[in-house]
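Exercise 7. Predict the joint structure of the components listed below.
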Amino acid sequence: KAGVTQTPRYLIKTRGQQVTLSCSPISGHRSVSWYQQTPGQGLQFLFEYFSETQRNKGNFPGRFSGRQFSNSRSEMNVSTLELGDSALYLCASSPPTSFQNIQYFGAGTRLSVL
Amino acid sequence: AQRVTQPEKLLSVFKGAPVELKCNYSYSGSPELFWYVQYSRQRLQLLLRHISRESIKGFTADLNKGETSFHLKKPFAQEEDSAMYYCASYNFNKFYFGSGTKLNVKP
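Solution:
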């Protein structure tokens, strides 16, 4: 099976712009979670989608949003970018089994805001 | 709110020495605990989970509910163990990750 695929791998944006990141989960996985990874804060949970519905949400401002499509692919959007949004954004999918609490991570999208 | 604390940002040991990476969690309900590892230039991946009670790559972790800890241990560290380690809890349908500990095993 192909792993979790995130595109693009790298992004450079300027303050005030918006950005969309994409995540394709492992085939058969219906849960997709997004995380922000920074050196000082570690991994911070953004939100989780399951069957096209946001099931959980972390403590991020409304500028961060997401959605999930019927094929389980997910997108994350960040509007009005700020310098502090520079980070590695990780996507993870989980299987619909008793192991559903295991997260399989993508390689991430590194966002740099100038 | 749930919290997972990894007090050490960096842990350096010599090859063959025992290693213990600390993890404490804030108690609420019955969280499921995990250790994830990220080797250089690789993806973050699951190392072990407490309900499996297994040893992976020589690592074990015991859940201590009294101390709300889930420390990761290995009796003899190897150079290939050098990586970033994250402790995580799953509770109330959410994952909570610690800030990570970088393990450096010196030759």
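Discussion. The two ends of chain B are 41 Å apart (CA to CA).
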